[in-house]
Fold each of these.
Amino acid sequence: MATVALDHIVKRFGALTVVHDLSLEIADREFLVLLGPSGCGKTTTMRMIAGLDEPTSGEIRIGDERVNERAARDRDLAMVFQNYGLYPHMTVAENIGYPLKVRRVPRAERDVRVRTAAERVELAGLLHRRPAELSGGQRQRVALARAIVRTPRLFLMDEPLSNLDAQLRTVMRAQLKHLQRDLATTTIYVTHDQIEAMTLADRIVIMKGGRIQQSGTPAEIYARPANTFVAAFIGSPPMNLMSGTGSEGVFVHPAGQVEIPSVPRGQVTLGVRSEDIRIVGPGQGHMTGVVFSSELLGDTTLIGVTVGPDLVNVKVGPEGGMRIGEPVSLLFDSKSLHVFDAEGQRLSG
Ligand code: ATP
């Protein structure tokens, strides 16, 4: 069983604290994604699990065992990094087989396992090539094959798809997910790309400034973001956020108002996703605005509307393009409103 537990982990570099009292449990076979903006401490957290960095305080357990004092090579995990870390002078087969070689697996067995791993990621025809003779996507698959050639307890992946172009990324994302299902190996995956996180994760942990902001399934996080940071980070486009005032069951904004029985008095932020807004005839909606932009995205059109001091995105059908400067009225779906307090913490729903 490869569960992982981080127990009150703190990491300081000199005077700088980059991970603050982080506690997290990862279930056996879970695909956990650490998501957050650059510098939020994702990689540092991963490196501590890997054994490449030591926590300043706190305990890390893999299975039932405390591993703080264990060297990286003795933690029985495999890592895939953004730059792949392939050895340029070795062939694809030698790169894939390297973890077996250092563990002194006999040659014949090694060859069989290298071939099996290579077939799994569709590299069987390229075993004699060197990394310089491969495309980015092929190199990425060599790094993956090298990770799966053993059956480690744990996979650690740090932005493994970020060097690929958008199309290849989508393909590799699906392959990665299948591979992890088939191998049934606990995986911790670091990314700053929310779409990657949404599509791959069983559970997402969102970090900011070395602290966990929210942990939940992709659907939970999308439906009920814990605070305005998460709301603004998840979704494309992210949730619309509007500052206003709560007063007697009404949210009051410079461009209109919305009845929300539960709204508290004082400063609040209203969140509405772009798919929960309709553009209606003048005077029929909650807020008035002016079309700022109209972008056809294929199956949808994204209309940007200036609403008082805010720019609100509305998703409409492919035929819904609008003229810039057109006055509009916005109607919000009253069942899909999110209310956050003055500190940005979720209040409703
Ligand atoms: P990115 O997506 O850019 O890789 P990240 O979320 O993975 O970001 P980390 O690499 O964990 O972030 O870095 C967290 C913070 O710790 C950053 O402010 C970084 O500058 C700092 N940091 C990381 N490693 C060191 C180090 N060895 N010495 C000093 N500061 C460090």
Note: DSSP finds eight helices and 20 strands in the chain.
Amino acid sequence: MNASAKRAQDPAARPVLDVQAVHKRFGDQPVLRGIDLTVDRHEVVVLIGASGSGKSTLLKTINLLEQVDDGRIFLGDEDITDPRVDTDRVRARIGVVFQHYNLFPHMNVLDNVTLAARKVFGTARADAERTGLALLARIGLADKAKEYPDRLSGGQQQRVAIARAIATDPELLLLDEITSALDPQLVGEVLDLVGDLKAAGSTIVMATHEMSFARRVADRVVYLKDGVIIESGPPEQIFDRPQREETREFLSRVR
Ligand code: ADP
Ligand code: MG
């Protein structure tokens, strides 16, 4: 049975994310030129491509930080590009971590992790903190609960940012080059945590330059060039048997 027939029978098999023919331009520069991308539950999709290829813009349109010019994006059943959509409510269903500045510097680690639960979902502080502490224990940072972010290493900060992003159990996690600003020796601890999330069943779309990580963890690798998906497939296809000359050429430059 193909994927769409399976979905018709089982609503739970609907994709978490369905990006349909999305176009985005900045001024007269087209940045996304007809992106189609579906992401199923528990799937880890890794976006690769040169700097400027549109990876961040794509992630931002999904999180409604940028409006699409054309096309539609569905989160589950909901067309989130519908202008009447409640942006805050959509964002509450998506966890996001960027390259930089994810944590509020004036709040301790636990308050950072529990903020959304308390403010967006109205969870009582004691309940939010119980969940938050369990989450910090899971990522090995329970002893940092009362520290402020500037007392943590970059790798620890990004692990807390991931904990914050998953604290409210989002349907989808968007990770945009979350290790690019880290010293090389701190990259592993952050990527290991992403591997743990995959093992626990998270649905993730992630832009990264870490090709060996992409090979290990991605269910699907998507190669983006100048706002177009050139090729997409399992890591063995993309890295070992790329079908397109552009993909081969890009990979020969990055490794
Ligand atoms: P990537 O994340 O793959 O490096 P981006 O999505 O950040 O690529 O950028 C794609 C293109 O869009 C680049 O040429 C970039 O300069 C341009 N761009 C991104 N954001 C903006 C913006 N807010 N205003 C104008 N141009 C932008
Ligand atoms: Mg980017």
Note: The beta strands are 17-26, 29-39, 44-48, 70-75, 78-79, 94-97, 172-176, 204-207, 220-225, 228-233.
Amino acid sequence: MTEHLTVVDHPLVQHKLTLMREKDTSTNSFRRLLREISHLLAYEITRELPMTTKHIETPLEPMDAPAIEGKKMALVSILRAGNGLLDGVLDLIPAARVGFVGLYRDEETLQPVQYYCKLPSGLEDRLVIAVDPMLATGNSSAAAIDLIKQAGATNIRFLCLLAAPEGVQRMKEAHPDVPIVTAAVDNYLDDRGYIVPGLGDAGDRMFGTK
Ligand code: URA
């Protein structure tokens, strides 16, 4: 991907995102919508994967059919909300290796604190898609990408549902080589670090916690 930021403005994505934003949308619907949107976002983030051809035989005749080259991919979920996007992306890329980075945001400093990191081996040979629905300050995302790079990855993309301009800027400064795909860039971050208008706390809405 050449663009640093891609906003997927497809009507289905935008419609589903609107439903997710609504405060009365149930946990059940929120989860289902997130899974559906993650299919559409995964479609976009994998659009330019290198292709090759594979010799196959159809019931009628042999052909050289298109196939993804390499197929070595890894998904890294930034816990815990990342798991909501992860499930949908795995529906489309079931052979991907999966890693997890656990970071929580210190509510006072808004800085990320790491509590878990388990990444697949061989990341240097893989396209890594890091997933986290909310790119807010960008601090957690940038820290997660630091860890993924320390593990050897050089080809990384970042997939989120919603971004704040501040988070996009932070990622651009920290990791200009990591393209971002999102459904929308909202207006600003409030003083608690929430994206406005946003959709609230994605983890709470997805898991029904508060
Ligand atoms: N994380 C969320 O879940 N929501 C926000 O608005 C910002 C960060």
Note: The chain has a mean pLDDT of 94.
